[in-house]
Amino acid sequence: MADMLPTDLAPPGGLDRRRFLTWLVASPTLMIAARWGLDLPSAQAAEAPALEETALNLYVAVRTDGRIVATLPRTEMGQGITTAVAMLVAEELDTGLDAVDVSTADADPRWLIQLTGLSSTMRYLAGPLRAAAAEARARLVTAAAHRWRVLALTLTTAQGEVRAPDGRRLGYGELAEDAARVLLPEVSPLPKSPSEYTVVGQPTGRVDARAIVTGEARFTLDLDIPGAVPTVVARPPTLRGTVQSFNASTARAMPGVVGVVQLPSGVAVAAQTFAQAFAARDALQVTWAPGPASHLSDADIRARLRDAIGPRPLPPLLTTRVVEGRFDFPYLAHAPMETQSCVARVTGDVAEVWSGVQDPKFARSQVAAALGWALTPQRVTVHPIRAGGGFGRRFFTEAAVEAALISRSLGQPVKLMWSRNDEMRHGHYRPASHHRILASLGPGGSILGWHHRAAIPTVEFPHGFGDLLTSLLGQALPDVTSAVFFALTQHVPYQFGWVAQELAEVPLPIPTASFRSVFTSQVGVANEVFVDQLARELQRDPVELRRSRLTSRRLKAVLDRVVLEGAWGRALPPGVAQGVAVLEEWDSAIAHLVEVDVTSGTPRVLRVVIAADVGLPINPKGIEAQLQGAALDAMSTTLSAGLHIDAGAVREGSFADYRWLRMKHAPTSIQVHLVRSDDRVGGVGELGYPSAAAALTNAIARATGTMPTRFPILDEGA
Q1: How far apart are CA 675 and CA 193, in angstroms?
Q2: Which of 289, 420, 439, 495 has its CA 20 to 30 A from that of 107?
Q3: Is position 510 within any domain?
Q4: Helix or strand or coil: residue 691?
Q5: Cβ-count burial of 84 within 10 angstroms (0-12 exposed, 13-18 middle, 19+ buried)?
């Protein structure tokens, strides 16, 4: 899930130079910082303000060896932002990708927002990054002009060099120190026009691909922190259960055991190896107190959600009939491939943690509070580490808090690993939900109104939208934060008369979190499935109905593209059908066409056609990968993957019973077509899930004649 600002709160994707401030940072080599501002004058380099007073500082540095370093204040979780940042910097500095290093920033209060989620990383950072790199290029050119005593306007840049018309060349490394002393650049520091791009917009492989496949890339558990002992935790059978008593005598006597520590969440065991730690954990004798959800099972939860829907509202005047749709969605685990993990070292009055967190500043505050240092969070250093998937789960920092407490108790560093069972049964989940959608029809098939009421347990946003104020609000008033986020992000992109969408929050003691596309993963899916139901009621083609009612030209364009590329309406064999759906969110628009075969009794996806308008496509290959992955996620949760709650315990414990699709279930073709309407930078990570799930559901409804209303469709454990 890029940083956490609703679409209308995020900075514009298009580069407006007046909105970015750049300045020279005091340094022996060239370092340019940039930040985004609301009402800034035309950017100009200046003497650096005190670093502790600046916010959202993006640093682009040119070193004397010619290496270019860009600071990334977000977490790489597989979404490819490292590559996108390198491409933007290489583009503006006219150098190769192999000359750019991207460094992840530690948790730092100087950053306005460090939260990685809601598809806003590149929307938020692309402009400042381009501004900083362009400023650096202008200063390098000016430095070369001074050295050669020529007009700066006569010089060009290419392949990491400044070049003169007479053939003289100077590498950026040779000019770095001189460029740092330039008072004002003598050429324009404006970023390039997108029409000049030669790197950005080109399909590019990941800059870290080789490191990942060779094992060179370091994830949290790969780190070699001296003295860190492998650690695991015995956890209760129910959600948020607690320890009543325990006997660790047998465990302490086992080979390699370093120590046993009681935590609020369970009992930790540290040993010389993980195998020894797991064995000793299993030897613990623990009496558990049940968690607050121990009285709840699936049937109870569904009943609570349905009861929260309430009576029907009165339809608009002139309504001749009302069409109703009901939909049920399950709890979902985020299930990233890398489970929660953390390395922590607490010594005296300072703490240091390494973990793949999505909001390092929130992690810092949570660790500080757990250690009793809430008023002095600066005593905690958080190093964000590359993560193996996040999807919203890594906003929560249980692993970091646990590791810090264990390290302090043992008096040495620890390397804490959650097992897959821990991950599945003790996480934070996309909440279950129940939906009622009413469409009021008038004379001649007119649509007079649309009313969607969604009953959803409160989504926890203790991290807020990435800043201190909303984080405090999210912790003090979680229901208010959840409702505000719903109101800011949910909309119906059709002319359907009087439109209303309401959230009925249902307080349930089951931990929740944002999941890929947050509320839209349910509300948006239900909407697009109901549009197809409405088309059937009106006896209209679902594509034609959408075209006639869509309010967004971008949505019309992507819909037209998938209809064209997917050959919508062509003759298909019995039991084979197509479905479509659209979504506009995170400054982007997308449409899916899914073709499905139900002749075997089990739906089989034959192909997926995607058209997306994300504005300026920084790396089309990365966008394609993101959208293909999101489509497979949507297929999994629509068809087979979901959680069940049994007396406050999560039934599923691994991928053996959390039925994510396997490679054999993937369609032979997932085509991605980019439709570009402007040069804004739109979000991608959240974008590809909702309309993929809805298009698949619509295809199954057309193939079988029955609209699915409860998910996952192939729920064997219901």
Answers
A1: 19
A2: 420
A3: yes
A4: helix
A5: buried
Q: How many whole angstroms separate alpha carbon 262 and alpha carbon 243?
A: 8
**Domain match, 236 and 105 both:** no
CATH number at residue 458: 3.30.365.10
Total structural domains within the chain: 3
pLDDT tens-digit series, residues 391-419: 999 999 999 999 999 999 999 999 999 99
User: Does residue 423 form part of some domain?
Assistant: no
In a domain, 45, yes or no: no
- Full residue range of the structural domain in which residue 472 is found: 302-331+428-704
Domain-embedded: residue 29: no
pLDDT at 6 over 50: no
Q: 354 to each of 80, 138, 220, 225, 230, how far by Cα in Å?
A: 20, 37, 7, 10, 14
Are residues 539 and 660 both part of a single domain? yes
How many residues does this entry show for the chain?
A: 718
Do 407 and 432 lie in one domain? The reply is: no
Question: Residues 26, 28, 31, CA angle at the centre, nearest 5°?
Answer: 55
Q: Which residues of 324-358 are buried (b: 16+ CB within 10 A; e: fewer)?
A: ebebbbbbbbbbbebbbbbbbbbeeeebbbbbbbb
| Residue found under tokens 């039991």 | 575
Instruction: Express each pLDDT in 244-293 by its tens digit.
Output: 999 999 999 999 999 999 999 999 999 999 999 999 999 999 999 999 99
- Looking at 417, 448, 468, which one is the last position of a domain? 417
Residue 633, SS3 per DSSP:
helix
Is the pLDDT at 710 greater than 90? The verdict is: yes
Are 478 and 367 in a shared domain?
no
Percent of the chain with pLDDT strictly greater than 90: 88
Least confident of 38-47, 178-187, 448-457, 608-617: 38-47
Contact between residue 435 and residue 501 where contact means Cβ atoms under 8 Å apart: no
- Annotate 567-602 with b (16+ C-beta within 10 A) or e (fewer): ebeeeeeeebbbbbbbbbbbbbbbbbbbbbbbeeee
Residues 207 and 251 in one domain: no
Mean pLDDT on 327-332: 98
Asked if residue 318 and residue 386 are part of one domain, the reply reads: no
